[in-house]
């Protein structure tokens, strides 16, 4: 059985998908971009702020499911330019404990939704 996770603290979906799906103890979070959930405007003026907005959107979805960053077991990071990796990684790293950080991949892609610089999705597991 799947449960739809939805919060006003993260951007509403802009297509036929949900913010996250909880099935059993596993949460699958859709890719988040730097949309401000209150205004639905992009925050892309500065790469560090853009990455922070993405991470805060993920945090809001995790909280709605009763989880936090320690529950994440896997992330997928999609970036439009691998030259931006260091700046994105620096912000991303502030949200995790280095010893318990999740598995991940980082992939450069030709384009992302709304032509943003970074999109991140995650899988989290609620510890029983």
Automatic annotation (TrEMBL):
<protein>
    <submittedName>
        <fullName>2-iminobutanoate/2-iminopropanoate deaminase</fullName>
    </submittedName>
</protein>
<dbReference type="Pfam" id="PF01042">
    <property type="entry name" value="Ribonuc_L-PSP"/>
</dbReference>
<dbReference type="InterPro" id="IPR006175">
    <property type="entry name" value="YjgF/YER057c/UK114"/>
</dbReference>
<comment type="similarity">
    <text>Belongs to the RutC family.</text>
</comment>
<dbReference type="GO" id="GO:0019239">
    <property type="term" value="F:deaminase activity"/>
</dbReference>
<dbReference type="InterPro" id="IPR035959">
    <property type="entry name" value="RutC-like_sf"/>
</dbReference>
<dbReference type="GO" id="GO:0005829">
    <property type="term" value="C:cytosol"/>
</dbReference>
<dbReference type="InterPro" id="IPR006056">
    <property type="entry name" value="RidA"/>
</dbReference>
């Amino acid at each position: 059985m799947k449960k739809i996770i939805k919060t006003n603290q993260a951007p509403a979906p802009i297509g036929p998908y949900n913010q996250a799906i909880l099935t059993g103890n596993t949460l699958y979070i859709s890719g988040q971009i730097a949309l401000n959930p209150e205004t639905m405007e992009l925050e892309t003026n500065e790469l560090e702020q853009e990455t922070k907005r993405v991470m805060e959107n993920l945090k809001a979805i995790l909280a709605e499911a009763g989880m936090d960053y320690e529950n994440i077991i896997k992330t997928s990071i999609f970036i439009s330019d691998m030259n931006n990796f260091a700046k994105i990684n620096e912000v991303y790293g502030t949200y995790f404990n280095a010893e318990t950080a999740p598995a991940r991949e980082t992939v450069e892609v030709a384009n992302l939704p709304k032509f943003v610089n970074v999109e991140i999705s995650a899988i989290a597991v609620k510890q029983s």
